[in-house]
Amino acid sequence: DRGGRKTVNATIAGALASTAVRIVEMLFGEPPQLGEACAEWQASFRSDMTGVIGVAGSRPGLVAVHARRETVRELASRLIGKTEPSDEELRDTICEFSNMVAGNLAMHANEALPSLAISLPSGVAGENYYLRFVGGIERIIQPLSIGELELIIELVLDSEDVHEAATQRASAEAGGDDV
User: Fold this and answer.
1) pLDDT tens digit string along 21-46?
2) Residue 77 contacts residue 146 (beta carbons within 8 Å)
3) Which residues of 81-93 are buried (b: 16+ CB within 10 A; e: fewer)?
4) Which pairs with CB-CB distance under 8 Å and at least 24 residues apart come from 9-15?
C-alpha cells in the first residue's frame, strides 16, 4: 500500500506494458500511449466488450482486454479487414486481440511469470461494466490509448500468499498419499 493505494509488482507490470506495446505497434505501426499501471479499477475506465483468457502456471489467473465497441470496431478493421463487422465478428476480434496479448505475455514474461500456459478466449459484451474480484489476487491494470482509441489490459493472478498456501497444501496432500 502506498498512501492507501495498492501498488503493482513493477516487474510484472513492465512485462505487461512491453507486451501491449509490441502488439499495438504490430497492428497500428505506432506505439500506444501507456497510462499508469494500477491495481484497482478506476471510475474513468469504460468497457463494452472484454476478451478473457485463462492463465495457468506458476501463478494462475487471467488476462482480460477491455474496450469500447468503437475501439473493437477499429481493431476489427486491422485484424480482419472489415469496417462494418457483425456483433459476432466484434466478439471474435476482442477475443483474438486478448489471445495475442496473453500469448505474447506467456512467451516474453518468463522471468516474472515462468511456465505460463493460456486457455482459449471467451468474449463478454455489455454496457459499461467491469470485473470485480473478492480477494486473494494481484491485479495489474494497464490502460493505453492509440490516438482516440482506448484499451485496458488487465492481468489478474493468484496473490503470492494464496499461491504459496495452495502449493504447500497440494504438496502436503501428495506427501500424505505416499506410503
Assistant:
1) 999 999 889 999 999 999 988 878 88
2) no
3) eeeebeeeebbbb
4) 9/112, 9/138, 9/140, 11/111, 11/112, 12/109, 12/112, 12/113, 12/138, 12/140, 12/155, 12/157, 13/37, 13/140, 13/142, 14/112, 15/105, 15/108, 15/109, 15/111, 15/112, 15/113
How far apart, in whole angstroms, are the C-alpha atoms of residue 74 and residue 84? 9
pTM: 0.83
Asked if 171 contacts 47 with a C-beta cutoff of 8 angstroms, the reply is no
**Per-residue pLDDT at 154:** 95
As given in the structure block, the three cell numbers for residue 55 are 492463465
